[in-house]
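User: Here's a structure from my thesis project, written as C-alpha cells. My advisor, Dr. K., wants to see whether a designed sequence matches the one we expressed. Can you design one independently, without my sequence as a hint?
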C-alpha cells in the first residue's frame, strides 16, 4: 500500500508535464519510494526523469528506483531500443507494448545482449526477432512472452532454423528457471516445438506450433512440472499420437488450430491426466459418446463452436460438475435448460437472454 508521501509525490508527478523540474526534490526520497512512484509511470515519463541530468537522482533510479519499465508505442516509426534500461540494476519487469492497431514494433537495433540479465518478467512484441545468443543467460527470468512477425536468419547453430521456419531457442540454457513461456509468431506462421529445449521447471506453455519434434526413445520430454498447455498449430490433426505422452501434472489443456482434431482419435476419458480440470479442443465429429467419457473433474470446457449439430443431445452429455462452458454459439433448446449442470455459472455463448438461465 502506498505511503502518504508516495501518494503526494505521485499526484504531483502526474499533474505536471515537466517532470524533470522535480528531480532535485525527488533526490531525497528513499529508493523504495521512488520505485513505488516509477512503477505507476510509463517508460516515456521515466525517460524524461532520467534525462534531467541530475547525477544524484539518476544514481538513485539506477540503484533501485526503477524495477518496472513498460514502453508503449502508438506509431510505426522506427524505434530505438531504450539503452537506459541497462543502468537500472534492480529492473525486474520489462514490457515493450503496442497499441491494438499496431501489433508489431520495428526495433532496428534490437539484440538480446541489450536485455538486462536480472529480469524476472519479459514481454516483447517485435517486427523481427533474433535468436538468443548461446552465451547469454537470464538466470532470474520467470515469465517470458514473445510475439514477432518474422525472424532474423541465424548464422549458425543446430537449434535455429532458416526461413520459412521460425527459430525456437534452447531455453534450458538461456532461461533455466523460466516457469511461464508464451511464443506467438504472426497468425500465418508456426514454429516447431522442441519439448526437450524448454526449461525443466516450466509450469505454463502456450504458443503457435507447426510440429512437436525431438522424440528421444519414443518419449516426449515434457517438463514434469507442467500444469498449463495451450497448443495452437497446424499439427493438431495428429494430436492424438502425442496425447499419451502429456505429463500427468496438467490441470489445463487446450488444443486448437486451423485444422480440426478427429474426435474419435482422442481419449476423452483423460485417464492419463488425473489432475486435468480445464479442457479446450477443436474437434470434428463430436458425439454424445465422446462427451459422456469426460471425467467429472472437468469443470471448464471449450468446444470451439463444434456443438452446433445435435445441440440438444450434446448439451445433455456435459460433465455434471461443469462450471464454465465456451464455444457453443447456438440456441439452447428450452427443454434442455433445466437439465444443464447446476454448477454452470460461465456460459457466455448462448443466444437466449440471460434470464433464460436464471436458475443456474
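Assistant: Designed independently from the structure alone:
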Amino acid at each position: 500500500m502506498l505511503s502518504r508521501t508516495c501518494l503526494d509525490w505521485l499526484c504531483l508527478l502526474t499533474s505536471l508535464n515537466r517532470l524533470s523540474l522535480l528531480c532535485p526534490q525527488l533526490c531525497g526520497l528513499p529508493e523504495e519510494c521512488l520505485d513505488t512512484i516509477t512503477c505507476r509511470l510509463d517508460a516515456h515519463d521515466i525517460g524524461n526523469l532520467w534525462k534531467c541530468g541530475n547525477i544524484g537522482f539518476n544514481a538513485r533510479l539506477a540503484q533501485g528506483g526503477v524495477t518496472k519499465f513498460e514502453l508503449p508505442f502508438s506509431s510505426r516509426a522506427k524505434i530505438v531500443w531504450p539503452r537506459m534500461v541497462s543502468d537500472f540494476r534492480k529492473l525486474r519487469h520489462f514490457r515493450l507494448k503496442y497499441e491494438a492497431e499496431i501489433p508489431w514494433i520495428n526495433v532496428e537495433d534490437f539484440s538480446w545482449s541489450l536485455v538486462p540479465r536480472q529480469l524476472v518478467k519479459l514481454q516483447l512484441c517485435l517486427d523481427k526477432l533474433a535468436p538468443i545468443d548461446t552465451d547469454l543467460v537470464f538466470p532470474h527470468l520467470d515469465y517470458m512472452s514473445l510475439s514477432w512477425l518474422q525472424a532474423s536468419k541465424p548464422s549458425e547453430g543446430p537449434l535455429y532454423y532458416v526461413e520459412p521456419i521460425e527459430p525456437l531457442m534452447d531455453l534450458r540454457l538461456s532461461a533455466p528457471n523460466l516457469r511461464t513461456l508464451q511464443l506467438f509468431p504472426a497468425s500465418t506462421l508456426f514454429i516447431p516445438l522442441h519439448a526437450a529445449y524448454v526449461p525443466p521447471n516450466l509450469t505454463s506453455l502456450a504458443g503457435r506450433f507447426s510440429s512437436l519434434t525431438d522424440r528421444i526413445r519414443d518419449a516426449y520430454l515434457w517438463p514434469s512440472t507442467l500444469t498449463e498447455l495451450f497448443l495452437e498449430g497446424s499439427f493438431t490433426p495428429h494430436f492424438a499420437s502425442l496425447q499419451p505422452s502429456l505429463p500427468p501434472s496438467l490441470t489445463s489443456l487446450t488444443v486448437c488450430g486451423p485444422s480440426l482434431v478427429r474426435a474419435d482419435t482422442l481419449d476423452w476419458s483423460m485417464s492419463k491426466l488425473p489432475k486435468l480440470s480445464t479442457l479446450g479442443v477443436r474437434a470434428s465429429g463430436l458425439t454424445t459418446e465422446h462427451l459422456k467419457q469426460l471425467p467429472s473433474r472437468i469443470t471448464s470446457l471449450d468446444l470451439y463452436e463444434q456443438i452446433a449439430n445435435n445441440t440438444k443431445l450434446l448439451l445433455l452429455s456435459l460433465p455434471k460438475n461443469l462450471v464454465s462452458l465456451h464455444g457453443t454459439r447456438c440456441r439452447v433448446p428450452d427443454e434442455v435448460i433445466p437439465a444443464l449442470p447446476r454448477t454452470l455459472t460461465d456460459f457466455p455463448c448462448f443466444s437466449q437472454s440471460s434470464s433464460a438461465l436464471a436458475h443456474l
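When you compare it with your expressed construct, this may help: Helices lie at 4-15, 23-26, 31-38, 43-50, 55-65, 171-174, 288-292, 311-315.
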